[in-house]
Structure formats: structure tokens, C-alpha cells
């Protein structure tokens, strides 16, 4: 059995929150850009390799002697969050790429304000997918945090 180091309270939660927040930020940036089909297919193509790289990143970058020094683990958590962001982006992009382009224009022409369009058009359309993507991303953020923090201690 590999001995695991003791962590100060809150380290696991802190790194998981950092990874999740950076995934949400990257997903928001992806969704704010053009929703061309090519970006959707590229995101699908890189989704699994991104998760594998995010999981292996701590073992590729850190050595057990170098580990406790901040801000390197925090930076790795941010990079891991960017790499797991397709788990949040893909369910939403699947709907947005295939939605009718006239839906927003029609709602605007009928006098719906921005808040009405969000609450009556986009939230009902995206609610389940946002929940699914958020749960998947939160679980991946926790797994990536354990991949970052559970490192074998340096041998004698």
C-alpha cells in the first residue's frame, strides 16, 4: 500500500473548486464564440484525450520533492479545469449548434426582453444539459484533485 501524505484542511475542496471554476470559465468562453459545427466536432474529438492529459498532468509535471510548493499545484488545477471543460461545453453545444437560428430573432420580434428570452427560451431548453454537464464537470474536478494530491511520498 502506498503511504499518502496528510493534507491541510480544505486543500482538496480548494483545488476541486479551482478546477471547476476554470472549467466553467473556459466553457463560457467557448459558448460565447462562434457556434460553428466544426468547433463542436473538434470539441468531441479532443474531449477524451483532454481528460486523459488532465489526469496525467500532475505526474508529468511534478516530482514528489517539488510538490508542496505553491503556486504550481494551483496552476495545474487551473490547467486541469481548462482541459475538462468540454464535459460542460459539449451538452450545451449539442443543443445550440442544432437549434433554429430564428428562435431568438422571433422572440425578440415578439417583444421578449433579454431576461424573458433567457428565462422562457434558453433555460428550459438547456436546463437538463446544464445539470448533466455541471455534475460531470464537478466529478471530474474532484477526480483531478485527487490525481493532483495523491502522490507517493519520496523514497529514502
Automatic annotation (TrEMBL):
One of the record's GO cellular component terms: membrane
Q: What subcellular locations does the record give?
A: Membrane
Keyword Repeat listed? The answer is no
Coiled-coil residues are: none
- Topology class, membrane: Multi-pass membrane protein
Q: Which InterPro entries match?
A: MetI-like_sf
Q: Which SUPFAM superfamilies does the record match to this protein?
A: MetI-like
Segments spanning the bilayer are: 12-32, 39-62, 74-97, 130-150
Q: Does the keyword Membrane apply?
A: yes
Q: Which UniProt keywords apply?
A: Membrane, Transmembrane, Transmembrane helix
Location (main, coarse): membrane
Q: What is this protein called?
A: ABC transmembrane type-1 domain-containing protein
Amino acid at each position: 500500500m502506498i503511504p499518502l501524505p496528510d493534507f491541510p484542511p480544505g486543500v482538496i475542496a480548494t483545488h476541486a473548486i479551482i478546477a471547476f471554476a476554470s472549467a466553467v470559465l473556459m466553457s463560457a468562453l467557448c459558448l460565447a464564440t462562434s457556434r460553428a459545427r466544426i468547433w463542436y466536432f473538434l470539441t468531441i474529438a479532443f474531449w477524451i484525450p483532454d481528460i486523459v492529459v488532465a489526469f496525467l498532468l500532475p505526474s508529468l509535471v511534478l516530482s514528489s520533492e517539488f510538490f508542496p510548493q505553491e503556486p504550481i499545484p494551483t496552476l495545474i488545477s487551473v490547467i486541469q479545469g481548462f482541459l475538462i471543460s468540454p464535459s460542460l461545453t459539449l451538452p450545451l453545444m449539442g443543443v445550440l449548434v442544432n437549434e433554429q437560428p430564428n428562435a431568438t430573432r422571433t422572440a425578440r420580434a415578439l417583444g421578449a426582453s433579454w431576461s424573458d428570452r433567457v428565462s422562457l427560451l434558453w433555460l428550459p431548453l438547456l436546463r437538463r444539459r446544464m445539470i448533466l454537464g455541471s455534475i460531470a464537470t464537478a466529478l471530474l474536478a474532484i477526480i483531478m484533485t485527487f490525481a493532483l494530491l495523491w502522490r507517493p511520498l519520496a523514497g529514502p
